[in-house]
Amino acid sequence: MKKRILIAEDESLIRMDVRLMLEDNGYEVVGEAGNGDKAIELAFAHRPDLILMDIKMPKINGLQASQVIASQLDLPILLITAYSQKEFIEKARQDNIVGYLVKPISEANLLPAVEVALHQADKTKRLKGDVQKANEMVEKRKLVERAKGILMDREHLSEPEAFKKMRSTSMSRQITLESLAKEIIEHVHN
Ligand SMILES: [Mg+2]
């Protein structure tokens, strides 16, 4: 699937150039914004895979727009800047800013930057997914532990006995250990 990119840049010639370079190289440009307001609006509307964001733009500038977007959406942003704005970027240490591109933009600097940014974003997403899965596992384990404790108390079982009982019950009823654990816990609260 084509990666979807949003371009926010107030100079229309640069915008057009960047669009062509991206499209020529297999990317889909989902929108073009000429100011920070529009960039925010289009980010929410399209949820692109990547936003190319010029820093100096009318109305809301690129850094402010990036902040607004980051407060609600998990979208990677590649800043577009001129050399003179370098100190500006040093201040822009935001999680969603995955890199920056220095003007003038050409295929030679655009494409590697876009590729790295997208790769980085994928990696971050995967990591977040892994952390979430690990958290879910811990939660499941806690449920089972709690239910086991309840069984041990209620039926005067040892820990291995309680666990064995839960395992065989969940197998014979063909439900997961966690659902059985939930039933046991809810039963106590009822
Ligand atoms: Mg500009």
From TrEMBL:
The keyword Phosphoprotein applies. Gene3D superfamilies: 3.40.50.2300, Winged helix-like DNA-binding domain superfamily/Winged helix DNA-binding domain (1.10.10.10). Coiled coil: none annotated. Residues 124-185 form the ANTAR domain. Residues 4-118 form the Response regulatory domain. PROSITE patterns: ANTAR, RESPONSE_REGULATORY. InterPro entries: ANTAR, Bact_response_regulator, CheY-like_superfamily, Sig_transdc_resp-reg_antiterm, Sig_transdc_resp-reg_receiver, WH-like_DNA-bd_sf. The modification 4-aspartylphosphate is found at residue 54. SMART domains: ANTAR, REC. Keywords: Phosphoprotein, Two-component regulatory system. This is ANTAR domain-containing response regulator.
